[in-house]
Design goal:
single chain; mainly alpha; two-stranded parallel ribbon; 4 helices; 2 strands
């Protein structure tokens, strides 16, 4: 019985070192596989960089790049003349005395504080416009000048007499329908306003002659 136990104990001792040997072999093989993977990645990266550099050197300038360069240069050339045109296009100003200039400033102040005159109950009905009409109803509260009603047209809102028919620039407006009407205008004080019924052909002729004579047109359409 004692001999059998000894025989049974021997194989157990033989198995243990075998297991340890297998583990040691696995541990030794694993780091080698990782090293191989890292070396492969580094080599692949180097190859891809070299290929890209070769492509960039050999790549010629395409059509798109050429067009982009042209468009940028064309934009710069187009923007430059616009800036120059703004400097050239200066509107003519009248030769006014100091008295009239002061009165024009007074007229501007009066214009700021004048309300917009609207028709009575313009907000109530769609069919009624907001253009001014004098209230004339028998029971109209606006006609009776009661409180909290919109303001009516009165003489007190009127501007100074000397600047009553002058344009906001200070010119005196004169209606023009022909090229002959330009002979009556004094370019230092007066400005032309082309009539509504004048056609485009006649309008172009009037504008051309006015530019030669240095006459300002208030409703200019064909700028040059």
């Amino acid at each position: 019985m004692v001999e059998e136990k000894k025989t049974n104990d021997k194989p157990s001792e033989d198995k243990k070192p075998k297991e340890t040997s297998n583990k040691t072999t696995q541990k030794k093989t694993e780091p080698k596989a990782d090293e191989k993977k890292e070396t492969k990645k580094t080599t692949d990266k180097k190859e891809t960089k070299v290929k890209k550099e070769e492509k960039v050197e050999a790549k010629p300038v395409g059509k798109k790049e050429k067009t982009e360069i042209k468009t940028k240069s064309e934009k710069k050339t187009k923007e430059e003349p616009k800036k120059q045109d703004k400097k050239k296009k200066m509107k003519k100003k009248p030769k006014l005395s100091n008295e009239i200039r002061d009165i024009l400033n007074v007229r501007k102040d009066i214009k700021k504080r004048t309300p917009k005159f609207r028709r009575e109950e313009w907000y109530r009905y769609k069919r009624i416009d907001d253009n001014w009409r004098r209230p004339d109803g028998l029971h109209s509260k606006m006609r009776e000048n009661l409180k909290y009603r919109p303001s009516r047209v009165r003489v007190g809102f009127r501007g100074p007499k000397k600047t009553r028919k002058l344009h906001s620039s200070g010119f005196e407006e004169i209606m023009v329908y022909n090229t002959k009407d330009l002979d009556k205008i004094n370019p230092d004080i007066q400005a032309a306003r082309i009539g509504k019924s004048v056609g485009t052909k006649k309008r172009i002729d009037i504008e051309k002659i006015a530019e030669e004579r240095n006459i300002r047109i208030l409703n200019l359409q064909h700028e040059r």
